[in-house]
Structures are given as C-alpha cells and as structure tokens.
Design a protein that fits this description.
360 residues; alpha+beta; Jelly Rolls; 13 helices
C-alpha cells in the first residue's frame, strides 16, 4: 500500500474551496500568499496573509528551508478526509496529487483555463464532463484538452477513495512544444482540437512513477528537484501518448493480460451472491494466484478482494434504492449470510446504514 500523501510532504494549507478547482492564477496566488506568511519557518503556527486575510496552517519539517512551491487543501470533515497537494513547477506547468476518501457526493467545477491535462487515476472513480464527453473514469490514464472558457466538471461519489496525479499544462506552452516537433500530424488531431479524450490502461511504469511522487526519498531542495524531474517525466508521457502511434499498453498491461483481468472481473460480477475465491479465479483462468493478484491490481487499481467487496456493496445500494426487497434478503443476494456483517460493511463504505439508504 502506498503511504498516505499526507505523510509525504509538509506544505502550507489553504481552504479546500479556494484551492481545489482553482485556476492557474489562483493556485499561484495561494502559493505566493503562503510564502508571504512565513512558511519557511521550522515550526507549526497559524498565520494570515496581509493581502487576503486567508488563514494558512504552516507546517514544515526541520531541514527544509527557502520558498515553498506547493500548497495543500485538506478535505473538510463534512466531505471526508485526505488531501489535495498542488505544486507550481513553472509558469506553465503544474502538478496536483490527490489522496482523499469522500464520505459525501461532491460536484466540482473546473477552472476556465486553456489547459492540457494528463490524469493518472490509481484508485477510485470520477464522473467526468469535459472535452464534449461524459464518462466514468476509473483507474487508468486520461489525456484531455480543455479549451478556455468551456465548462468542465467532475463528480465524486460518496465512498470513493481517490488516488490520482494530474499534470496541468498551459495550452500555449503545449502548442509551442508541439510546434517544435515540426509536424503536427505526428499528434492526434481530434485530441489537439479538444474533440476527444485519449484513454489508456493504467501502466506499470506510470503507476510506479506516481508511487515515487507520493513517497519521495528526499526532502528540502533535493526533494523539489526530484519532484520536478518526475513531473517532467509525466509530461513526456503526455506527449508520447498524444501521438497516434503511441503504444496502448506496456508489458504489464498487454492485450493478453488485459483479457485475463477482464475475464476475472466478469466472473466476479456474475457471482456476487457467492463470491469466488482468488484461488478459484486463478484456476479458472489458468495461472497462479500471485500473478492474477498482480495483474488485477495493476489494471484495476485495487486488490481483487477490495474490488469484489465494493461491487457487492454497490449492488446492494442499487437494490435498496430501486426495489422493496427486505434488507435481510439484499444482504443474502450480495453474499452476506449475517445481516450484522452486511450492515457494518455497508456503513463503512457509504457512511450510513442500509436502512438510511432506503429511506433516502
């Protein structure tokens, strides 16, 4: 399990509503305001910026000094728990890292910046509405162009644990890079026009890269340099994946392996009332349990057991909302022989007991 992002960086904190969904200018202003508040001090204090009066929680480990180039938004308790970290890599390139568990449904409007994004989702799911497309985005790699002035948004469902990294690139800088190649036809034309998304399976290489960003081996100035280098590596991935001849997968997510994961997923979904064991799935698919667990987690972003558990409870939620089947029978239909175990698992995932879900 990747350690919590909250433990990886010590950053000044800004209010969630001011930072998450903010424009390039807003993020830069918050970082500048945090620096003006004295975040280079090796202590924990609460200060207000003279310019905006906005409170910042200033936390910094010993050994770190100088100007911070990042700022953190912590989820309000009413939303859940976790953090969104934003880093200004340059005037034209930004990085955001997310590790947050939501206890309520959230809708988020994105800024009207003219921007290109590489979004890597390791865990969780977003309902995205952008680039003239609406889709359910689970673990995977998503490239999108957002023309300035267009409405873009996404929704996060209650019970979602979202782990994600996003490279945000100003469109002007991206176009300069494309022009430097000398031939725009080397890139997906519909993507460049913002008419379609480019979607790839979650690759092992990018999964490992995000893990390195969320557990950096260095702090201070060396940590900044390390993060910048890894972020530029992500940006290079964006450029490569935007080419029509980009490989759709690497060794860990080959066509054969993806077919194996798809078959395992289908077997699970067809047997939610009597969930199969990992050993059974491995025998049915002709490989060992260790290999199956590796392939499944790499492709889906979560372990087999967690996926199975989530799908059982998602089905239970739908049955409670859309049928009058007794709660005890709903529990049986999703593989729980004891209603008390079902209630505990359901409440842990959705924040309310099954009876409350039915009333709502």
């Amino acid at each position: 399990m990747i350690p919590s992002l909250d433990q990886a960086y010590a950053l000044p904190e800004a209010p969630y509503g001011d930072l998450v969904g903010g424009s390039f200018g807003r993020v830069s202003a918050l970082i500048e305001a945090a620096n003006a508040s004295g975040c280079q001090l090796s202590q924990t204090s609460v200060s207000q910026t003279p310019a905006s009066g906005m409170p910042f929680l200033l936390t910094e480990p010993s050994g770190m000094s100088g100007t911070m180039r990042g700022v953190r938004a912590r989820l309000p308790a009413t939303m859940g728990e976790g953090v969104w970290d934003f880093f200004e890599l340059s005037d034209t390139l930004y990085l955001s890292l997310t590790d947050a568990s939501y206890s309520s449904n959230i809708g988020l409007n994105l800024p009207l910046d003219d921007v290109v994004k590489l979004r890597v989702i390791l865990e969780g799911e977003l309902t995205c509405s952008f680039s003239r497309t609406r889709l359910q985005a689970g673990p995977g790699i998503y490239l999108s162009v957002h023309p300035g002035g267009h409405d873009n948004s996404y929704d996060i469902r209650r019970g979602t644990h979202l782990r994600m990294a996003v490279v945000h690139c100003k469109r002007s800088f991206f176009d300069d890079i494309i022009t430097s190649f000398g031939d725009k036809s080397a890139f997906n034309s519909k993507f460049l026009l913002g008419e379609e998304l480019i979607i790839h399976p979650l690759s092992r290489s990018l999964s490992e890269l995000i893990a390195e960003l969320t557990r950096p081996p260095y702090t201070g100035k060396l940590g900044d340099l390390y993060r910048d280098a890894k972020s530029l590596e992500l940006f290079c991935s964006l450029l490569q994946l935007a080419r029509p001849d980009a490989p759709a997968h690497d060794q860990a997510t080959s066509i054969k392996n993806r077919a194996t994961v798809s078959a395992a997923r289908q077997l699970i979904l067809e047997n939610l009332s009597n969930p199969p064991t990992i050993e059974y799935l491995a025998r049915e698919l002709g490989l060992n349990s260790t290999k199956l667990k590796f392939l499944f987690r790499n492709a889906m972003g979560v372990p087999i057991f967690e996926f199975m558990q989530n799908e059982r409870l998602n089905l239970a939620s739908e049955l409670l909302k859309n049928t009058i089947i007794p709660i005890s029978e709903v529990a049986m239909r999703v593989g729980y022989s004891h209603s008390s175990n079902f209630t505990a698992a359901f409440k842990k995932r959705f924040g309310i007991p099954p009876s409350a879900m039915r009333r709502n």
